[in-house]
Amino acid sequence: MTDARKSLRGHKGYLTRCKKFFDSVTPQTATRANHSTYKKALPELQEKIDLAYGELYDDCQDNAEIQALDAEINPILDLVFELRIKLDLWDEELTKKEAAEQAQAAAAAAATPAGTPNPQSTLNQNQSSMKPKLPQLTLPTFTGKYEDWLLFRDRFNQSVHNRADLSGAEKFEYLLAALEGPAADLIESIPLQDTNYPIAYNRLVDTFQHTREIIFRQVDRILDQPEMHSRSASALRSMSNITANSLAAISSLGQVTKSWDAIIIRIITRKLDSTTKLRFNQTLPNKDMPSLQTLLEFLNKEVIDLASAGEMSTASTAKPYEKKQDSYRRDSHPSSSRPKPISMTCDLCKGSHHNYACPKLNETPEKERKRLVEKSQLFGQT
C-alpha cells in the first residue's frame, strides 16, 4: 500500500468520526468550542485529501483507474463540503444565541441601580476572563509513531489536558482533531462524552508511552540520516536538529547520553560531505576528542555561513499537487499511454470542477451559502 493510499485511509477514518459527531449535534446544541475546532480542522483535512488525490492520480495507468479513483474521492470531498456547510449553520445559531445573551446582560445591567454590582454580570465577566479564546489553540498531529509521541504528549498536555477551564468533552474533541492513522483508530469507537475523555487519553498513554520503543526509534533517527554528497544548508540544519532533538528525547527518558559523544560524532562525521568534514577537522586545535557540542556548534555556524553566502539549497515552492496538475495540462508532449483526466460537473454552476471548488460558492458570503446550497439542492439535507 502506497503512502498516499495509507494517508487517504487515515483521512477517511477521521472524516467518518467527524460525521458521527456532526450527526449527534444540532445547530442548537453545538458549542463555540465545537465550531472553532472543526472550522480549523476541516479545511486542513480537505488540503490533505487533495494532496493524496494528486499522488494517486499520478499513479493511474488508464482511464478506468482514474474513474475508480474519482468515484472514491468525490463522495469524500463532498462530505467535507457538506460538513463545512453545517458549520455555517452552527455559526448562525451560535451568533444568535450570543447576541441574545449579550442583550439579556445589557438589560440586566440597565435595570440595576448605578453603583450596585450585578452578581451575574460579575460572574460572567470572571468566567470570560478566565477562559482563553479556543480558536487560538493549535496542536500537532499525532499519527501513532513512537518517535513523535513525547513531543505530542507534552504539547497536548500543556495546551489541553492540564487546563481546568475545558470540559472533558471539549478536551476529547481536541484530542480527536489532533489524531490520525493508527492513533485515531485506537479511540474511534469511544463515544464523545465528558466521562470518556480519561479513558481515551489513558488508552493512548498505555499504548505509546513505551520507553524502549521510543528510545530505539530516536536512535534510529540518528543512524538513518542520509549521507551528504554536497554542501547544503538545509541538510546540515536537518542533521544538527535531528541529532540534538533525538538525544534530548532519549535523555528525558532517563538515559545518560553524556558518554555517547564519541559514538555520535563518528556517526555524524561519516555522513558529512568531504568538504564539510575537512572544514570541521581544520577547526580542531589538537588530537584530542572534541565534544558533541563542538560538532553541533560547527554545523550551525556552517548553516549560517552558507545562507549568508547565497549557497542555500532551494527547492521548488510549488505544492506537489500543483506540479502534478501542471503536468496533466501539458500538450507539447502527448503520450498515448498517459490517461486523460475525467471531466466532472459541478452541481451548482455546471462547471468542470468539484462542488467544493465552485467559484460561485466560494465567493458567496458564509451567511448566504446555506440558501445557495438549498436552492441548488446539492444535498438531500444540510
Automatic annotation (TrEMBL):
Domain of life (superkingdom): Eukaryota
Disordered as annotated region, ranges: 105-134, 314-344, 357-382
Bias-annotated ranges (Basic and acidic residues): 320-333, 363-374
InterPro entries: DUF1759
Biased composition (Polar residues): 115-130
Name the record gives this protein: Gag protein
